[in-house]
Design goal:
This protein is of the alpha+beta class. It has a single domain, classed as Beta Polymerase, domain 2 (2-Layer Sandwich), CATH 3.30.460.10. Helix content is 38%, strand content 27%. It has a 6-stranded mixed β-sheet. α1 crosses α2. The longest helix has 19 residues.
Length: 115
């Protein structure tokens, strides 16, 4: 079943929410960048929770959209993890790393949505 990037980002956000991710932001970068349509930024409170959130997103997108990530980073460490699905990019941080990288300020020219 084909899903557009809008549907995919909401599916990913729901998978984050299912694992109690906090501060879930969806950033529409379609008009300001060619790397993706959407960026999701969220956080978990421990490395175990970050890994659980990422697994939830992977499982959900595989099961409901038959999608696998093109690239994965930081999964084992669990401080900051990235799943790149092409049209959507998922970033899950622990609080300290999120504050350090300030990804939201980097994409401040995108359209922000709280989930």
């Amino acid at each position: 079943m084909f899903m557009d990037s809008n549907e995919l980002i909401h599916l990913a956000a729901k998978a984050c929410e299912d694992k109690k991710a906090i501060n879930i932001n969806l950033i529409d970068i379609n008009k300001v960048s060619s790397i993706a349509d959407w960026i999701l930024v969220s956080e978990g409170l421990s490395d175990v929770q970050v890994r659980a959130i990422i697994k939830s997103v992977e499982d959900s997108l595989k099961e409901k959209a038959n999608l696998l990530p093109i690239r994965k980073e930081g999964i084992n460490e669990g401080k900051w993890a990235l799943l790149d699905y092409g049209d959507i990019i998922i970033n899950i941080f622990q609080t300290k790393e999120r504050e350090f990288y300030e990804l939201e300020s980097f994409w401040s020219n995108g359209k922000f949505y709280k989930y």
